[in-house]
């Protein structure tokens, strides 16, 4: 078994493992299933999530980012799902492992182009964890978002999401009661009770 690269940022490593374990649980028959990301299949969400993690890595390292537009994924995979995802997670974790926690800012692929390191790592984690949830509910798996992870990610979301709604990255927030997980999902415009 290959050793997994970790970033040393707990929230990011936890989110990466949530996405990795969810992707391990999908089958070829799952790839065309609908997801909570309107108009995107499981394969497209997977491509988007992998592309985003590569974009976070490229922002830090200056290395290559995704060779496709993560916001226009094709839905056609060349090979196994984990073979697409794992290099992206490895690159992202390795890049964040180089970021000084005491730095004023770290480069990110989101406007305004840099964030405080804790927030940048959290933004990458938010992307990974929420798309892990999307894929899990689309494929009938146990959603990997825990109350602790959702609580940490909600702090991140309240710092970065509002400006991104204007770009269509997130739907309007849903005003509804719920626990930590539901609260995060509602804030991101997702319905915690979504089913295919």
**Lateral arrangement of strands in the main beta sheet:** 1-2
* Shape call: globular
How many strands in all?
Answer: 2
At the first level of CATH, what is the class of the domain at 10-145? Mainly Alpha
Unreliably modeled segments: none
Mean pLDDT: 95
CATH architecture of the domain at 10-145: Up-down Bundle
**Gap between N and C termini, in Å?**
34 Å
SSE pattern, N- to C-terminal:
HHHEEHHH
Estimated share of beta-strand residues: under 5%
Let me know the largest β-sheet. Answer: 2 strands, antiparallel
CATH superfamily of the domain at 10-145: dinb family like domain
* Derived structural class: mainly alpha
Residue share in helix: 40-55%
Number of helices: 6
CATH domain fold name of the domain at 10-145: Four Helix Bundle (Hemerythrin (Met), subunit A)
Radius of gyration: 15 Å
């Amino acid at each position: 078994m290959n050793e997994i690269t970790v970033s040393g940022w707990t929230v990011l490593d936890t989110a990466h493992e949530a996405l990795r374990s969810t992707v391990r649980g999908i089958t070829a028959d799952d790839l065309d299933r609908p997801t909570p990301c309107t108009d995107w299949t499981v394969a497209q969400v997977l491509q988007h999530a992998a592309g985003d993690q590569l974009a976070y890595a490229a922002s830090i390292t200056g290395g290559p980012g995704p060779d496709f537009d993560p916001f226009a994924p094709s839905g056609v995979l060349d090979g196994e799902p984990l073979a697409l995802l794992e290099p992206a997670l490895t690159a992202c974790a390795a890049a964040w492992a180089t970021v000084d926690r005491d730095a004023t800012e770290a480069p990110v692929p989101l406007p305004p182009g840099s964030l405080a390191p804790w927030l940048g790592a959290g933004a990458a984690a938010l992307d990974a964890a929420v798309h892990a949830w999307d894929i899990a509910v689309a494929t009938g798996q146990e959603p990997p978002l825990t109350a602790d992870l959702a609580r940490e990610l909600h702090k991140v979301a309240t710092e970065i999401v509002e400006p991104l709604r204007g770009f269509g990255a997130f739907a309007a927030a849903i005003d509804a009661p719920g626990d930590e997980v539901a609260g995060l999902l509602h804030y991101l415009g997702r319905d915690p009770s979504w089913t295919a």
